[in-house]
Structure formats: C-alpha cells, structure tokens
Amino acid sequence: MAPPSATSPEIASNGDTTPSTMAPHEPGISKSKAEVQMPKFPGPRKFTDKYAEREYLKGRLAAAFRIFGKYGYDEGVAGHITLRDPVQPDTFWVNPFGVAFSLIKKSDLIQVDHDGNVIDGGEVRLLNAAAFMIHGAIHKHRPDVLCAAHSHSIYGRAFCSLGRNLDMITQDSCSFYDDLALYQSFNGIVLAEKEGKDIATCLGNKKAALLQNHGLLTVGGTIEAAVFWFMSLEKCCQAQLAADAAAGGRGHETVKIHDDDAAFTYKTIGNPHAGWFSAKPLFDVIEKECGKEYLQ
Q1: Read out DSSP for the chain?
Q2: The pTM is what?
Q3: Which pLDDT belongs to residue 28?
C-alpha cells in the first residue's frame, strides 16, 4: 500500500488542501526543482604557483598508476599514463619502463621532452619507446590534453579485436557518444613516429579511442578524467561483450539507445567535469589504502 503522502494532499497550516508540490523523495524541494536541480559539484584544485601545481599533479599521477595496478590494467611492462608538465608544457611526465604500476611513487616518475629525451626524474630513467611515440604525438596535437592513458586491459583489448565501435546500449556507454574514435590499423608495437601521429590524428578532438588489435586510449583535461574515462570504457567494453554474447545466443540483438537520448545523456555524464568528479572516489580510496607512501 502506498504511503499517505503519496496519495493524499498535504494540509497546510491555513487549512488549504491543494495537492502538495513537494517531491516525496526530497523533503523541502518542490517537484519542479527536484526534476531539474543538480548539486553544485567541487572542481579540480587551482594553482597560481606552477611549481606547486607540478608537485601536486605528480602525486595524482602516481595515484593513477596505483589505481591501474589495483584494477589489473598492468600487463608486464606495457601501459603508460602521461602528464603534461605545467612548468614546461612541451614536456611530460610518465612512468619509468619496467616499474610496476602498484609500486610507483611520485619520485619515480620521469620527465620527457618532445624529442624523447629523459630530462629529469627518478633513478630508473628507462623510457618506453611506444609511450613516447603515442603520447608525445597526442600532447603535440592536443594542447588541451593534460593527461593521456593507455594500457592493455583485458576487456578493452578483447573488444578492440572486433574492429568496431561501441554501441549505445547502456547509460554509461553514452559517456562516449560521438566522442570515441576507432583506429583501424595495427602495425605491431608503436615504435615509429608515423604510427604515433596517425593515432593522434585519428583521435582528433575526441576523449577516447579504440586501437584495433591493441587496446584503449583515453585523454582528459585532468588526470582524474583521463583515468575515469579509461575505467568506464573498459567496463563498457565488458558490458557489450557480455550483452552481445547473451543476445546472440538467443538469436536476438541488443536494444540500442536512440541518438537523441544518447546525446542528451552525454551532456550530463560525458562532460569533462563529470569525468573528474566520477574519479574522485577512486583517488580517495587509493589514498586511504596506500597512505602517503605513493607521494614520496
């Protein structure tokens, strides 16, 4: 039986029995406001001192690697996340080749210029050539990109073997509506400058790409957004692989979200601020689990 508040008018102090405009699930908020009002979210930290910003962002990058390690996005020595340096924007910070994601500290990160030279960083100064070719090209082509993430996650690379783009079959997949490139080429490990440039060109102004026979690539104006888009895209690939298998086994097809609905949903959950805010719990948890050790 429905509660009285759901079926009966609210009696005001003046005796008026006009049906209430209060939303039952949000006491004190009118129905019209409840339908459209969104909370005011916090945003990324702002800095006036570029050197202080660098130190803070390097700590966030180290945390990003810990998150990737926690969720199993490492595959031997493959995978990389890069951070454009706020002091020298034509350089970027990246993980040293051969150091486990789950062990990376801020002091381990290495700084690379756009000629591929390691100019600063930790004791291990080995640079993954593929990381430079891909990320160097992206940072050159996309001045809006602060962070780029690529790794060989299991569902991402499985889906990328299909040579197709995602279907809009879930609310989460709408985060990538008209914002996901498909790079339909594979020429082995990316050790050539041309291949890196081709990937950057294919990515265009989008926030993510499916690299055929390879894996996922995401970018963002914040480290948090790039990390969340990667994790969300990985789960979207997993969901579509499962849904396609289930539908195919029954002789059916998945139900696709209409373009208008996908575009509307994208505006809410696919924007840069949504990416940053969605990652916040991940970073909070990794800080709680690791303490301050990764900031060393």
Answers
A1: ---HHHHS----TT---PPP-B-TTSTTSBHHHHHH-----------S-HHHHHHHHHHHHHHHHHHHHHTT--BTTB-EEEEE-SSSTTEEEEPPTT--GGG--GGG-EEEETTS-EEEESS-----HHHHHHHHHHHHH-TT-SEEEEE--HHHHHHHTT--PPP--STGGGGGTT-EEEE----SS--SHHHHHHHHHHHTT-SEEEETTTEEEEEESSHHHHHHHHHHHHHHHHHHHHHHHHHHHTT--PPPPPHHHHHHHHHHHSSHHHHHHHHHHHHHHHHHHHTTGGG-
A2: 0.85
A3: 52
